[in-house]
Amino acid sequence: MVIFDIIIITLVLIYFFKFPAYILIISGLLILLLGRLVNYPLRNFYRGFSALNKQDWDDAENFFLTFLKEIEEQPWKKKLMYYNFGNYTSDIDAMAHNNLGLVYLEKGALDKAETHLHQALSIDEKYSKAYYNLAVIRLLQQKPEEAQPLFDKAVEFGFENSSYDQFVSNVQKVYGEVNRF
């Protein structure tokens, strides 16, 4: 998709603005290549994210744990996230902890999930996804009185959801009426 966009923009600039084609093509390829180079040191994060999307919980767990170890040993990698973007935080280690929380949530290890979500919040105290996921855990633990303030914090810090009732309904839909944990 990105290559298609580069081609269209290049053709428009050549046709309407008489830019030399070779300069535009080289510029587009450099931008594409630099994006790939920046992402390379973050590859275990992106592999974990891909495994998470495929619901391959074991691979996601391994990739995120490996990534967090890399970040600990080479903290300069965290700065590369500024060349990318996150929807709710720019701290890639907070995202990794949140994603590990999701992995453990899906595996039924709620204590481990909660630990990683709290670590995400210790890195970025306004990370709305971590608050949201903690609210999910509280509902699964059948503690709705603790879930609502967490949900409200998630909304306050930018998580978009229609209402608390809709949130409860979604959690029940995804995890079922019966508490499987």
Number of domains: 1
* Cα-to-Cα separation, first versus last residue: 41 Å
Strand content: under 5%
Task: Give the total of beta strands.
Answer: 0
Structural class: mainly alpha
The 3D shape can be described as elongated
CATH-defined architecture: Alpha Horseshoe
Helix content: over 70%
Rg (CA only): 20 Å
The main sheet comes to:
none
Q: State the low-pLDDT regions, or none.
A: none
**Mean pLDDT over all positions:** 84
Annotated CATH homologous superfamily: Tetratricopeptide repeat domain
The CATH topology is given as Serine Threonine Protein Phosphatase 5, Tetratricopeptide repeat
Order of helices and strands: HHHHHHHHH
The CATH class is: Mainly Alpha
Tally the helices.
9
Properties at a glance:
Serine Threonine Protein Phosphatase 5, Tetratricopeptide repeat; mainly alpha; 181 residues
Describe this structure in words.
With 181 residues, this protein is mostly helical. The protein has a single domain (42-175), classed as Tetratricopeptide repeat domain (Serine Threonine Protein Phosphatase 5, Tetratricopeptide repeat, Alpha Horseshoe). It is 72% helix and 0% strand. The chain contains 9 helices and no strands. It has helices spanning 2-17, 21-39, 43-53, 57-73, 92-107, 110-123, 128-140, 144-156, 164-175. Helix 3 packs antiparallel against helix 4, helix 4 (57-73) runs antiparallel to helix 5 (92-107) and helix 5 (92-107) runs parallel beside helix 7.
